[in-house]
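sry for the spam today, last one i promise. struct tokens for design, 371 residues
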């Protein structure tokens, strides 16, 4: 079982206890590993969104938009070279997409559209035909369609209302795959599984579970852990790679993870893993509060004098330190550690500081990750 402690500003002493994915029988191998070489591919392209209601790029401030618009019109047989354009319903955008593995020609994928000029909104616009290229420079898909945005940007003479991001959106099923990425599982006899969360013990358990199954199914042991991240499989000759991966993917194993404490200073969140231990320590924590108040005084000159009005600074500085409790924190288990921290009555920022100090003292028997 994996227990997590999440401490936030809204819930200082909230203890979240969650079971390992997959329930008491463990996690499925298909959920904690990926097949090496079977991956997505990133595509990118430059295009134009047209049909905006005066919220497009200012062509004078975005010359690349004007150049792209003229090039598109030239390809359509419209001569606009040397003619200044003043359209405000066009926006230059970057189009990105993720090409899934083994996707065939003619399939459709979603694309993301983001403005790169000074357009204020892409709402209601239409993406013009845009080739999408991969890292090798080859065109793998072509995108076009109505842009859907979740943000709204409305402004008047004295007020502006902005909700979400109106300069980015999506085109669902907006790209048509024109080229298939090379690669197939046919004819591959050796497969490599990569763990999503690398761990030596988990890799060994995966190999043992697969070997126990293949001994019953095919009468041979075919799996061997290479390191904490990969498990090598020698596929039996009598079964295809797809069916073989489907069968072993349903096997379950009990996952393990290193002792780790993750701290997010921006949100005040602390996540403590179940295997975290703290050597017995005594600690006290007090808060020092400094207050600086400015109360400037305006001094007026006497009547009929040649003096001028002046402002004299008046600064008030005070320092207060709250009394801190001293407590014994013995992290023999997660519940004891949480109880010890809560006994002192700490805020999330205080808990983060204490964990960093305990780590420096060598009493935190876990990896501390500060984000």
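last one done:
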């Amino acid at each position: 079982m994996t227990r997590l402690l999440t401490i936030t500003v809204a819930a200082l002493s909230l203890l979240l206890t969650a079971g390992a994915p997959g329930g008491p029988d463990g996690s499925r191998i298909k959920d904690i590993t990926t097949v090496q070489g079977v991956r997505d591919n990133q595509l990118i392209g430059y295009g134009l969104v047209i049909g905006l209601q005066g919220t497009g790029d200012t062509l004078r401030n975005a010359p690349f938009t004007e150049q792209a618009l003229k090039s598109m019109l030239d390809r359509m047989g419209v001569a606009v070279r040397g003619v200044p354009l003043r359209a405000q319903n066009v926006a230059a955008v970057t189009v990105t997409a993720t090409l899934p593995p083994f996707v065939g020609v003619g399939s459709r994928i979603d694309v993301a559209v983001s403005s790169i000029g000074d357009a204020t909104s892409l709402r209601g616009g239409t993406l013009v035909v845009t080739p999408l290229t991969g890292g090798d420079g080859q065109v793998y898909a072509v995108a076009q369609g109505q842009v859907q945005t979740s943000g709204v940007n409305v402004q008047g003479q004295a007020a502006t209302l902005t909700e979400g991001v109106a300069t980015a959106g999506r085109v669902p099923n907006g790209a048509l795959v024109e080229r298939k990425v090379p690669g197939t599982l046919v004819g591959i006899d050796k497969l490599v599984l990569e763990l999503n969360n690398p761990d030596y013990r988990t890799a060994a358990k995966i190999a043992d579970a697969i070997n126990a199954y293949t001994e019953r199914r095919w009468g041979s042991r075919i799996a061997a852990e290479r390191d904490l991240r990969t498990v090598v499989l020698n596929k039996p000759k009598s079964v295809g790679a797809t069916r073989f991966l489907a069968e072993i993917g349903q096997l379950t194993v009990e996952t393990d993870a290193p002792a780790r404490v993750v701290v997010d200073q921006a949100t005040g969140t602390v996540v403590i893993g179940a295997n975290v231990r703290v050597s017995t320590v005594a600690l006290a924590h007090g808060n020092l509060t400094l207050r600086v108040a400015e109360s400037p005084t305006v001094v007026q000159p006497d009547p009929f004098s040649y003096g001028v009005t002046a402002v004299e600074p008046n600064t008030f500085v005070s320092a207060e330190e709250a009394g801190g409790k001293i407590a014994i924190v013995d992290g023999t288990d997660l519940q004891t550690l949480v109880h010890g921290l809560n006994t002192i009555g700490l805020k999330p920022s205080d808990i983060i500081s204490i964990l960093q100090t305990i780590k420096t003292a060598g009493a935190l028997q876990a990896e501390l990750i500060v984000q």
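The two ends are 25 Å apart (CA to CA). ok im logging off now
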